[in-house]
Amino acid sequence: MIAQSVLVVALLTLSGVAVAAFPRSVLAFLLFQGALLVIYLARIPWWLRWALLGVALLVMMPVIGAYNGYYLEIATQVGIFAALALGLNIVVGLAGLLDLGYVAFYAVGAYTWAIFGSPQANVVFGGGFPLPGWVFYLFLMVGLAVAAGTGILLGLPVLRLRGDYLAIVTLGFGEVIRVLANNLDKPINLTNGPRASRRSRGRRRPSGCRTASTSTSWSCSSWSSSSSSTGASRTRTSAGAGKRSARTSWPPRRWVCPWCA
Q1: Could you tell me the CA-to-CA distances from 45 to 2, 4, 91 in Å, in that order?
Q2: Rounded distance, CA 10 to CA 16, Å?
Q3: Quick check: bond before 251 cis, omega within 30?
Q4: Rounded to whole angstroms, how far apart are CA atoms 20 and 146?
Q5: Which of 13-27, 50-64, 182-196, 240-254 has the lowest mean pLDDT?
Q6: DSSP E strands, the chain
């Protein structure tokens, strides 16, 4: 274990030096990403693993982004899609629910910030938009709450569906969200219809400008979401055990309202 710890630290240091020496080399950046994978898979003490990952993502990655912002953009995209993949793994792989409209919940949360973080909200709510950059961090929780509330509203009527029937319902929900996003430009122009994607493509950074520090904020947010999804998927945690029980305890017991007795 000591030898592996030394090798992992040496690999991370070597990859960091390579990226600093060759900031435009894709191979050097791939070496750095490979070092992160080795750290995660290596048999080293848990505290050393998380310490190295924290140093790599919270210290080294912003420094690398200062040399080449393209790398930080790639890391942000990797974190976003990793969070989506891990969440889908929890729903389908761990809980055993065939959810084909999973990305619709992501769209609901994303549109929550896209509307208020762009001038589009002026059409509906009047002046004062877009909101200041620091509100982005508050809307991380607001978007999460809106997406969760949407999931609850969808889940209540289809609580007992499984297999193909659940897949059909969730697939229809995904299509409903897509159609709503493309057509909610009348009678009230809420999403600006299909043109909204063009306006929100250059996403508003937390401080309102395209700098390395703001890119770091997006990268940290996406990787924090990925870390949260990873923690929720671990069966040794209470959240992971709850997801596993959704697969094993079927059919569910009849729910009785405690206030109706």
Answers
A1: 9, 10, 29
A2: 10
A3: yes
A4: 41
A5: 240-254
A6: none
Phi, then psi, of 258 in degrees rounded to 5: -70, -20
Reported as half-sphere exposure (CB side, CA atoms, 13 A), residue 210 has a value of: 7
Is 154:161 a contact under the CB 8 Å cutoff? no
Q: Report whether the peptide linkage leading into residue 130 is cis, meaning its omega lies within 30 degrees of zero.
A: yes
Rounded CA-CA distance 44/12 in Å is 14
CB distance 200 to 118 below 8 Å:
yes
pLDDT of residue 223: 53
Higher pLDDT, 204 or 221: 221
Query: What's the rounded mean pLDDT across residues 194-221?
Result: 47
Is there a contact between 22 and 65 (Cβ–Cβ < 8 Å)? no
- 3-class SS of residue 227: helix
How far is the C-alpha of 174 from the C-alpha of 169, rounded, in Å? Answer: 9
| CA–CA gap between residue 120 and residue 127 (Å, rounded) | 10
Q: For the chain, what is the mean pLDDT?
A: 75
Decide which of 231 and 36 is more confident.
36
Indicate the residue type of 253: R
Q: What DSSP state is assigned to residue 59?
A: I
Cα separations in angstroms, 191 against 40, 199, 202: 40, 10, 16
